[in-house]
Amino acid sequence: MKKQGVGARLVRKEDDRYMRGRGQFVGDIRRAGMKDVAFLRSPVAHARITSINIPEDIQANVVTAADMASVKPITAVTSLPGFKPSNQSILAEGKVRHVGEMIALCIAPTRAEAEDLVARVEVDFEDLPPVHDMLQAREKDSPLIHEGWSDNIFLETLVDYDMADAEREAAVKVSREFSTARQCMSPIEGRGAIAEWDHRLEQLTLHTSTQMPHIVRSGLAECLGLDHGSIRVVAPDVGGGFGYKGILLPEEVCLAWAAMQFGHPVRWLEDRRENLTASANCREHHYVMTAYADKDGKLLGIDAEATVDSGAYSSYPFAACLEAAQVASILPGVYDFPHYRCHTFSAATNKPPILPYRGVARTGVCFAMELMIDAVARELQLEPTDVRLKNLVRPEQMPFDNITHKHFDSGDYPEALRQAIKAIDLKAVRKRQKKGETDGRLLGVGFAMYCEQAAHGTSVYAGWGIPMVPGHEQANARLTPDGGLELRIGAHSHGQGLETTLSQVGHEVLGIPHEKIKVVHGDTAYTPYSTGTWGSRCMVMSGGAVAEACDQLASRARGIAAKMLQCKPGEITLKDGRAHGPSGELSIEEVAHVWYRRPQDLPEDVDPAGLEVTSGYKPERDTGTFSYAAHAVTVAVDPETGEVEILDYVIVEDGGVLVNPMIVDGQIYGGAAQGIGTALYEEMIFDSEAQPLASTLSDYLLPGPTEVPSIRVFHMETPSPYTRFGVKGIGEGGAIAPPAAITNAINDALKNLGAELAVSPVTPRRIVEAIAAVRRSDAA
Amino acid sequence: MYDFTYHRPETLADAEKMFADADDGQYIAGGQTMVPVMKQRLAMPSDIIDLERISDLKGISRDGNVLSIGAMTTHAEVAGSGDVAKAIPALARLADDIGDPAVRNRGTLGGSIANNDPAADYPAALVGLGATIHTTSREIPADDFFTGLFETALEEGEVIVKVSIPVPDKAGYVKFPQPASRFALVGVFVAQIGDSVRVAATGAGPCVFRVEAMEKALEKDFSASALKGISVPGEGLNNDIHASADYRASLISTLARRAVAAAE
């Protein structure tokens, strides 16, 4: 049999339906009597609602906050000391705090007609001064987003590991200010949901495009005051999530309420304008940093003040401060240095809530830290890779507890960098740089590294005390009467290929052919509870749970086979889907057949537990796996137009044991494409009135096929010592390093001009302005 | 999009009658602007009169030193035309670089110039080449045709029939595309016809405009180096989320030099 277990490059099972256009997304689902919903959304960023006027003839089809008094607001709190909770009303109550906030829900037979209703509802506002910028939000006299708060800070944190010592000892001190743009996550499928009430089951069913059906169910139960048993959440095919669908939406709560109220199914499909202007915000960080180093580039300490623009509300379940709190703990990155201080602010502004996006916090952190390393190298006139090699955690230190007590499980960071240097051919690039380009462009090479804590569990999230703390991940494994295997998981696959990779895990343990294994997921009625798909956790957690459940199932199958073969269970071995005993063998199909269909052939004392197992799993340590990578890129910069061309892009990554290397490659390519977007294109600009200025995809720039180069990926495979099969989470990694690597390459290209970029995205305008600023200061 | 009555006349006369009879009629060419505008409910015409079937509005021909292009000729047809490639290769390349294949197969020359998007490519070519726009009622020099932001000299109901373009000795066009739409963040068209040189910039201001200082310098010496030191002030240029006015001004200088160097 062709290898189908862990390590096989199997074609994805789910691709057959996707490639033929037969996926079933929320937008493909029809329900009898279903009506469409359009939301009236706030056109202003900060205002009191003084009145809402609904023409009499449409009042029955329009819902406002006054109608939904029994529904609780979304309140995602944390147990971190000093955190200020926000109340996000499902429909705005009294006040709006960002453009796009929902004020009314309008129902009509079609979306177009619902939009006509929206246009007829008039809202009077009393304008309040908007806060459009996180640094403005921190000022003492800034207008308050939430009355009753003393300032606009969700949470302030400070850690200080003897920073003063570094200041005393350092030979050089390099300071910089970095910032990353607010971005919008752009899955091909936007959000969408259909809610309906089943009178027979007395149950609300919500089909929704989500990464976490069980968490949505818990959130709905809390907001609507329903029992969990009265709610079923189904995530059908989901066309990309990236974190955007890893929260409880106020729209979901609103639809669920409306379905119960109106007695017919209601549907809402997000359009791209809603996606861009009202919802999908992420990534906006600001750093003031100082690095202290000795004259050889050995880091003595990093001192940072980080601000994250958290937007107006704390989203459920990750809360408004997850991003900044993570910044403090992961900013040191892959480096080992003795002193560190980090002061963070999660600032509330009149913008949509910041949501976790692939590489949560890590992309900004990597940008700041890796640009800092290059700045130190330039200051000391050293090769940036040499500075990295001097400071990286070394393989003999593994497992390594870093300065913020992150436990790096395994790996060889310097080796990843050495391989990247070789693959990009640093020497040849330096030689070519000396020669110069015939077309007047400037060549640059840049590197960036990160490590990615993934699949971190109870011990980490309990510390944050958010509404969702992952425990043992559960899976259900069931042998079917014809010897097939059904695997049920509560996490969800929305592009990750879990239908394939979990099947590979099942095959690895039980030897059942891949074609006879079915993964069932995305439906709270069919699957065990799970916090869902986020944090690069599923291969470690759901994969581990599937293996655990299959182990137990194997033991049950061996027990039945032993009865059939008249031997002891311990004498049975399962191999290639067959149970081998001392005097004969049986296929798993025969074992299943006899258990389900011919029980008369089994003795009375057979174990009654049967061929279905639900089991939970945690790695030996739940502090997370640490995959890591070195990215290296060469660029050509046109100093006259600011245009950047990526000439070569290399990624050397270590994701531990790879269950399906082809899927891992796909994850890395996709992540890197998004990282290129962060680096060079994507920016949701807000004006001083906190109005979002990019409301279509011709203004919000996404990289397309012509902007993404052929990326060369190289794998190292250092198994995690703590997980089943030695796997590590890698889903987000590709998106973390590109902004840092590309900006370092651009700064390398501009080095001789004296220009340096520290703001992402690095647009042509920013490059030309940076060069012009240097020329102006030279002239002056 | 709201309901409308769709007409597809086969002659200009029928089209004009349908337009006159409509409450709020709207001609449509390739629909690359009009359809999105209607989808966003920014326009709600009662009647759409599609010019696609009118053969008098189509085709490319060359008569001596004048190239004529029918208003309903698509960008793809201009890009693929041997006549255009031979007479004005820069114009063929310009057409081949508009939008994407879907846009090029639907969008038309007449539709583009009637819309006069400030970042469209064709206005730069027609002003840069000193073309003439022929309508159902008159002939309008390109210099007078493009009057402002999405504004042209066209009167209500007036339809563009064709444009006639003098074949230059040399012409070049270089644009810096906005990455998503491929519209020109700035585009500069340069043409030399006899002793006269025209330089037209699109994308930079509210409407295509000529850069006279550059034209004078190039009339003395048609070379990139002749443009050294000639800059365009940023004042009055477009300033938006994609580019500041000063950045656009700097692009005009850079792209003009490159357009001269590329001219053939």
Verbal overview:
The complex is a heterodimer of chains A (780) and B (264). By secondary structure, chain A is of the alpha+beta class. Chain A has three domains: 179 residues, Alpha-Beta Complex (Aldehyde Oxidoreductase, domain 3); 333 residues, Aldehyde oxidase/xanthine dehydrogenase, molybdopterin binding domain (Aldehyde Oxidoreductase, domain 4, 2-Layer Sandwich); 146 residues, Aldehyde Oxidoreductase, domain 4, CATH 3.30.365.10. Chain A has 19 helices and 31 strands. In chain A, the strands form eight sheets. In chain A, strands 3-5-1-13-10-11-12 form a seven-stranded mixed beta sheet. The termini of chain A are far apart. The model of chain A has no long low-confidence stretch (mean pLDDT 96). The model of chain B has no long low-confidence stretch (mean pLDDT 96). Chain B is built from eleven helices and 14 strands. Chain B folds into two domains: 46 residues, Uridine Diphospho-n-acetylenolpyruvylglucosamine Reductase, domain 2, CATH 3.30.43.10; 205 residues, Uridine Diphospho-n-acetylenolpyruvylglucosamine Reductase, domain 3 (2-Layer Sandwich). With 264 residues, chain B is an alpha+beta fold. The N and C termini of chain B lie far apart (45 Å). In chain B, the strands form four sheets. Chain B has a five-stranded antiparallel beta sheet. Classes of the chains: A alpha+beta (780), B alpha+beta (264). Chains A and B meet through helix 19 of A and helix 11 of B.
